[in-house]
């Protein structure tokens, strides 16, 4: 077979498109028949705090999608002097969980409530007890039940309940479906049936029966699909919603929509049992694919699935690099004050590498990166905070190391349960996201936190948009392979990336840091209580 050039691939309609709605950026990646990225586009966006809840408007969703695709078209025109007329397959992915409820006319009933909201504490606690299963604050079922507890009028009118990825897919294909990984963040999925847990669905329906709603839970949830299953085709209306220029033809297959956790697993080749990945950017989460269920439920650990339905232990943290970014912004201002031209990549690189010179326990310095609440450590709200005592060793290296530790401190607390208490075995953990952009530094910090080698692949920088593009490719090219084997044999071909192993000194230093961190959490709570 003669390999096509990127231009020939695009012109022949054989390129595959993945689009992911992240917290701060919508990204599109176009890949060729060898799964290599050949063009991309993006759109920056931000959530809004409206009536005390974090949201993005549906107008922002569609404007962002269209602008992102327009930027992709521009990139294709600039690089290859051609137009995207047809695609071999498409996939849509987005931040998981949250709450998007629609009436029978497909009109949204209340603004989209994102994963970031922590107003669902009562609902999550009651459901966790009812199901004997940890139900996180951000899961769709928590949001739904909280609305019921709060007697919100719109609940009676719900006809459809879905996630952001499910919403976009539904509107461009007409198919009300969801990939099993994203579905497992609505209500738990049974790994045996790879669909919503029937016993939990029954218990929920019984719980709300006195309300007399006209619907039952399965009436309003999307159908759960495995990776590789038919999830519909791009409709003429969908093509226009995506490409307002009108060049893109309808008809191409669209893979099951997935959450960012699932696409992160795919992008790091971590869907096989005993593999894991850590995504560290605006928020962070780790995903460890389990060989068997945990011995008991843990409030800090969410049980979800891979895009092909294997059980995954997930530690999700609402905060990661935002506070580091704020401090780097301060250093940028200082440079500008001195009249020095600022290269942000150079600035990040120098500051991150300076952290390697710091003491392994950060000299006693501590950083809490809580821009928003952090359920794992029981904080309903966030207050970014840097803490030191007069006798601590306050210098730039320790300062930066404390913030890099602080960015993954909550992640370590959750994973200590898996690795130390449950004795989970992991053969490979792969990192991806902005935390790892500076070579070696983030890997070394995470290796110390988890006491495990951490790999980073060059392709991991492509992130979830590439991951969902791979799932779209799997839809049309699986040839009987399961997803794990397809990724291992076809996409990655044995490439496991560059690995950094922990040192005994770094591990001991992080342990000392995290003990101080946990002991001083009441300071963070006091900041929340008094401001």
UniProtKB/TrEMBL annotation:
Record-annotated Carbohydrate kinase FGGY C-terminal domain positions: 277-474
GO biological process: carbohydrate metabolic process
Domain spans labelled Carbohydrate kinase FGGY N-terminal: 16-242
GO molecular function: kinase activity
InterPro entries for the chain: ATPase_NBD, FGGY_C, FGGY_Carb_Kinase, FGGY_N
Keyword tags: Kinase, Transferase
Gene3D superfamilies: 3.30.420.40
Mitochondrion keyword on record: no
Entries under PANTHER family matching the protein: SUGAR KINASE, XYLULOSE KINASE
Family per record: Belongs to the FGGY kinase family.
Protein name: ATPase
Natural source organism: Xylanibacter ruminicola (Prevotella ruminicola)
